[in-house]
Amino acid sequence: MDTKERILATARELFHGRSYADVGIKEICSMANVQKGSFYHFFQSKQDLAMAVIDDMSDDWANGFVAEAFDDALPPMERLDYMVDAVYFWQKAAKSLEGRMPGCLFGNLALEVSTRDEVIRARLNAIFDKASGRFHQALEQAIEQGEIPPLDTKATATAMLAYLEGVILLAKTRNDPDVVRNLGPAIKSIRIERKH
Amino acid sequence: MDTKERILATARELFHGRSYADVGIKEICSMANVQKGSFYHFFQSKQDLAMAVIDDMSDDWANGFVAEAFDDALPPMERLDYMVDAVYFWQKAAKSLEGRMPGCLFGNLALEVSTRDEVIRARLNAIFDKASGRFHQALEQAIEQGEIPPLDTKATATAMLAYLEGVILLAKTRNDPDVVRNLGPAIKSIRIERKH
DNA sequence: TCAGTATATTAGACCGGTCGGTCAAGTCAA
DNA sequence: TTGACTTGACCGACCGGTCTAATATACTGA
């Protein structure tokens, strides 16, 4: 594992487990066994690192269980349950490892830095758009296959993403992953009707 | 307006508009025209200030439009729309004043500091519990009055609060209060059935 | 009413520590 | 010999918090 990857992985872990402002470059470096000069050889700034961390996590998600959850082979509405389950097990594992529920890195960063850093905010926004696109596709297929009655798929998809983020927020505040398991499945009840 | 109130009001504005870590005591003092010595006469620490700000905002909410929204005179399910509207107009006003959507102070703080500060986390958790209690009461009455079919009122109430927080999170990330207006009303579609 | 005193509040210099970031000198493989 | 990478000392700015001295304000007994 080369230096840059080590920095990235460490930063991701620390940012996720605590917060952006709370984690210093010095701490990242010492935990990754890297000197400061090396750090600034690979990253221009802390902001640059944050962007790289966001992209890194986003890629992992897209190729990881998000890809599994939104597999076309699964019945569309079951994909939502799969997604909720994945979040639950992930948060539960993280809590049992570190004692605290880290929540969603994207949601955490969004609320922490989006009033201060326009570049990061825009990137996070794009990631949410992409995520809501997955929900959108699932909803389109669910309607197509007669699994649910027609509705405003775009709006409902975004609402579902919002709900998932909200559930994670509340679960993190309670420090209890079970909140995700208890409230998560209700994501399927959210409906925004078509305008006519 | 005495010194302590000035500190409190300024801190609240800054914490809400930016973040906890990003706002220093020095900045709060200079904006409130207070010296550091005075600050530490009234507050033991920055954490102490945060707690006071949280309580202050919580009281304002409880006696402000939350009290209006959850007025017993309103039909229960209409209270939810009232609440969503209030959030929308508030965020819109804040954005037109400062250019940025601040989101929900409690949600912001929850994601920023709850992994780091157990005391603040617990307080925020209590506030969320109280808020979900309002939803709960509205749902109980809605069922009682035949406005909606029976459901798990406790779980649904919490789910609705989660949804509201999630919508605000997404709106803040988009920096667009209209997200609240567009997605907010779907809060009424959320249902968690009774266990039997 | 007043002197005297205790207490609440203000003032701002000061503290050690940490922050993000820079830099010149070095190592090492191609 | 070149260019990628590493080392770690160093920078000014800022952080939360402390401290002592000055100044209002409130309360006291005569």
From TrEMBL, chains A, B:
SUPFAM superfamilies attached to this UniProt entry: Homeodomain-like (SSF46689), Tetracyclin repressor-like, C-terminal domain (SSF48498)
Record protein name field: TetR/AcrR family transcriptional regulator
Keywords: DNA-binding, Transcription, Transcription regulation
Species assigned in the record: Candidatus Thiodiazotropha lotti
Database matches in PROSITE patterns: HTH_TETR_2 (PS50977)
Keyword field contains Nucleotide-binding: no
DNA-binding region: 24-43
Domain HTH tetR-type: start-end pairs: 1-61
Upper lineage: Bacteria, Pseudomonadati, Pseudomonadota, Gammaproteobacteria, Chromatiales
InterPro entries documented for this protein: Homeodomain-like_sf, HTH_TetR, Tet_transcr_reg_TetR-rel_C_sf, TetR_C
Any one Gene Ontology molecular-function term assigned to this protein's record: DNA binding
